[in-house]
Specification:
The chain contains 7 helices and no strands. With 128 residues, it is an all-alpha fold. The protein has one domain.
Length: 128
Amino acid sequence: MTGMRSGLVILTALLWSGSAAVAQQAGKPCAGDIKTLCAGIQPGEGRIKSCIKSHLTDLSPACEERLLTVAVAGKVCKADVAKLCAGIVPGTGGIRACIKSHMAELSDPCKDTMSQTAAGRKILGGDL
């Protein structure tokens, strides 16, 4: 019985480590975009954030989805959503589509929040 129990412990540990790897990849959907779009950019002093900000319309679907979630749910982008997407019913996906189509018109604070998220920095104040 002890051998069986230790086998279960090992199996559980392996499953958890695999789940952690998948969760880690899912938590960084913009890493590939940064590697591709910002190749050669030296990290630090906001350079990666600036690079992503200049490429907001060139992002992969996974990264774009993450940033749209930040824009739609975040406090910083609330005024942009109200201004650019007035009259769109929440919960239908219309607001996400609206923000996506108005990416170039977003305010700098909203773009900064999205860029910070893409660069892997936590946003304070409940903006995620």
